[in-house]
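Renewal narrative, Specific Aim 1. Our central claim is that a sequence can be written position by position from structural information alone. The example that follows is taken directly from our test logs and has not been curated for this report. It begins with the structure tokens describing the chain, in the order in which they were read.
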């Protein structure tokens, strides 16, 4: 090892405060009202372990899960295997696009998803029909960012076992 034989005085440094915002990168985002079953769904299709309870706003931070499909090798890997990342986003409320509740904080995580899964409660406790839930959720997404409603989406009904027979 050789040590330097001389040193020079350095220049005055710079100082800066930065606010960095994390936006999750996910292939699929689960979007729905509070208590619609998003956390239950991600816990069933992936190894994610979100808190699940029968009250609104159990999920306060997004959870990620990896879903593996196809493949016949160990752990679902092998020929024909695919995997994708699913984000369980906290429940949205009407007015989320204007920042009501923690709307912007939740919606920003949806921005980078390629596909949206809109989860609707088929046995709604607040009296909203499934079609009304979809309309409100898509309206909130559109108001936040018009690009979101142009993305591919799947509408999934939850709690079908709780729907009264007619």
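The sequence written for that structure reads:
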């Amino acid at each position: 090892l050789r040590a330097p034989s001389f040193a020079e005085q350095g220049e005055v440094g710079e100082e800066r405060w930065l606010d960095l915002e994390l936006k999750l990168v996910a292939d699929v985002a689960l979007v729905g009202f509070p208590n619609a079953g998003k956390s239950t769904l991600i816990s069933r299709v992936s190894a994610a372990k979100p808190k699940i309870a029968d009250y609104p706003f159990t999920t306060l931070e997004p959870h990620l899960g990896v879903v593996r499909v196809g493949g016949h090798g160990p752990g679902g890997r092998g020929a024909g295997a695919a995997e994708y990342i699913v984000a369980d986003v906290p429940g949205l409320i009407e007015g989320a696009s204007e920042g009501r509740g923690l709307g912007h904080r939740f919606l920003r995580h949806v921005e980078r998803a390629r596909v949206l899964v809109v989860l609707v409660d088929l046995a709604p406790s607040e009296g909203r029909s499934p079609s009304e839930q979809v309309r409100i959720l898509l309206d909130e997404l559109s108001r936040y960012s018009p690009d979101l409603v142009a993305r591919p989406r799947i509408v999934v009904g939850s709690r079908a076992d709780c729907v009264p027979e007619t």
